[in-house]
């Protein structure tokens, strides 16, 4: 079955999920963050089918999150190295990890330690201006897409919008 593409939706979450939204892609990135760079080692760590891993690595390289660097010439073999774009995704993956530890598991198989201070830590999403934690009831989302006609702002928690002026996730305005 072919999946729906969200690559053109006027929503950064939809576009990100179009690229990263399957479980293998996030696990391949997890391995990269843990320092696993070679195809055979990633395949062994995840137990992923080779063709599936090839597809995920090609997608991540094509999107600019990883780059291939040759480490052997005969035959040519590559390591997969995080780019700046790939490293920038780390806070999002750390936040997913923290959420999963809180709500989905009773143990913590991986613990994060902040090298600067030496303490065990977890991801916290904060306001870029004041540093306070971002809580859903304290955030307002404003639509600024050129394709959107949504009026005003709404809470990030989700105030239901329907009727005239409502914009569907694919950017189609309800008149």
TrEMBL record:
Residue ranges of domain HTH hxlR-type in the record: 11-108
Entry-linked InterPro entries: HTH_HxlR, WH-like_DNA-bd_sf, WH_DNA-bd_sf
Region called Disordered, residue ranges: 156-175
Entry keywords, A to Z: DNA-binding, Transcription, Transcription regulation
Pfam families recorded: HxlR (PF01638)
Name of the protein in question: Transcriptional regulator, HxlR family
Source species, domain of life: Bacteria
Organism: Actinokineospora diospyrosa
């Amino acid at each position: 079955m072919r999946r729906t593409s969200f690559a053109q939706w006027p929503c950064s979450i939809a576009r990100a999920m179009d690229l990263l939204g399957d479980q293998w892609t996030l696990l391949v990135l997890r391995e990269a963050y843990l320092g696993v760079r070679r195809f055979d080692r990633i395949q062994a760590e995840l137990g992923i089918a080779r063709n599936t891993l090839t597809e995920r690595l090609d997608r991540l390289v094509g999107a600019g999150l990883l780059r291939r660097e040759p480490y052997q010439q005969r035959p040519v073999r590559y390591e997969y190295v995080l780019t700046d774009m790939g490293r920038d995704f780390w806070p999002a993956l750390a936040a997913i990890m923290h959420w999963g530890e809180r709500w989905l598991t009773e143990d913590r198989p991986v613990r994060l330690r902040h090298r600067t201070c030496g303490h065990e830590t977890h991801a916290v999403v904060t306001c870029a201006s004041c540093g306070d934690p971002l809580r859903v009831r304290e955030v307002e989302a404003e639509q600024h897409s050129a394709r959107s006609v949504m009026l005003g702002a709404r809470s990030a928690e989700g105030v239901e919008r329907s009727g005239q002026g409502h914009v569907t996730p694919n950017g189609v305005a309800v008149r």
